[in-house]
Amino acid sequence: MFNLEWLEQEYLEVSRRFEVYLELLQKWNNGINLISRRTDPEEVMGRHLLDSLQLNWYIPRKAATIADIGAGNGFPGLVLAMCGYPVTLIERSEKKAIFLEAVALELKLKVRILNEDVRNVRNYYPDYIVTRAFSDISNTIELASGMITSDTILFFYKSRKQLKELTKEIMTSYHVDVYENVCRNDGVIIKLSQPRGNNERG
Tell me, which fold does domain 4-193 have in CATH? Predict the structure, then answer.
């Protein structure tokens, strides 16, 4: 079972890299509004870093390929890259994509950055798709349909109120797991897997 002791250990593994990430985040935030300017460093640590690290628990295979849609400020994608996963960050905003490039270069992270609309991504089929503060579940699935196969597993950061996004269609098309977000009292992490539809690569 997921536990906070494990999460703290994971934080220690990436803390030095994250300190550099935090410095860059604060520096760039003045120009492109990556996070609320009222957010202090300690809040970033808990609200963003530890929040992102939780996915490391649910994606145990470090060779698994991960796509972060609407990567924006880099949570959770850059954090997962710090943990050793091969990550593709998909971000439509050119300014935010440049920020992601700057962090990846500084930290020598194993990431690919696509500065384009997710609807235009072709011939790329990651093992996992993750989103945080991007769009509702149905719309995300539709936008990313060209990347989704019968083997794709999707993770969504949501509040409990947003569980209503799990429509009847989604519930009948996917196996759904809902996990507690240990960093947010009202938060959950939704996992969709094993689509029953005929989603072939092509």
Answer: Rossmann fold (3.40.50)
pTM exceeding 0.90:
no
CB 99 within 8 A of CB 75: no
Counting DSSP H helices and E strands in the chain, the numbers are 8, 7
Q: What percent of the chain has pLDDT over 90?
A: 53
User: Could you tell me the two tokens for 113?
Assistant: 């950055």
CB 157 within 8 A of CB 136: no
Cβ 190 vs Cβ 166: under 8 Å: yes
Segment holding 156, helix H or strand E: strand 153-159
User: What would the mean pLDDT of 8-35 be, rounded to a whole number?
Assistant: 76
CB atoms within 10 A of CB 153: 22
